[in-house]
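Researcher: Let's continue the batch. This sequence belongs to C-type lectin, and it's 240 residues. Same format as the previous ones, please.
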Amino acid sequence: MSHLIFVMTLVVFVLGTESCKFRESLFSRIQDLSDLVFADSLLFQFSAVSAEDCAHTCAATPSCLSFTYPAPMYTRGTCRGHATRELSSNDATPSAGTVAFLGKKDKCPRSWKLLGESCYMYISIAATWQNAQAECETMGAGLVEIDSQAENSFVFTMVTAAGAEHAWLGLSDVGTEGLFLLPSGQPPTFTKWQPGEPNDFRGREDCAMFRPGNPKSADGWNDASCDRQFPFVCEQHVLF
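Model: Same format as before. Here are the structure tokens for C-type lectin:
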């Protein structure tokens, strides 16, 4: 009996380790499936499996370049593996609520830019901070959460290249004045406030932004009223 318990424990450990490997950026997530149709490429289809098992199977199948899985991700659903990342009208469009994962060779979805293990998109449409975060979420992303000078410079360059004078960042102290948190609720590991900022001017500034329109700002951050409408940058982390 003791030997059986040992073997079962070992198997669980190995599977757990393997699952961790498939969180290390093998696939990038596509949330918006309005035009996503895979071209006659279905390799396999399994029912009642986890998202990690689906990713594991695709990654272990040399010809599998992408897979689709139903949202929400924590349920057990139908996994479909595909031999292509190309779009076509020759196959059935995934049903509403499906999430697609493209092989890492694609790096980022179309129109997104890659840095490290994240993809970024500048959105020129002005929105309040809350609406900007909501818009990013519809794409399976969130307002950019900057955690290094390299990332700060990269995102700032995106904003200035677009000619924007302001752009929202994923940081606010809406919950508790003076306690700036990321949209995830975690404290930032990196900040680059301009001198004298954040200053909560007139008690109404709770959301962080770039202000390249001000020559004194450089790539530093400013706080502004969350109800103002600015362009923004979305960041999508690679999931598997």
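Researcher: Any comment?
Model: Residues 113-237 form a domain with the Mannose-Binding Protein A; Chain A fold (CATH 3.10.100.10).
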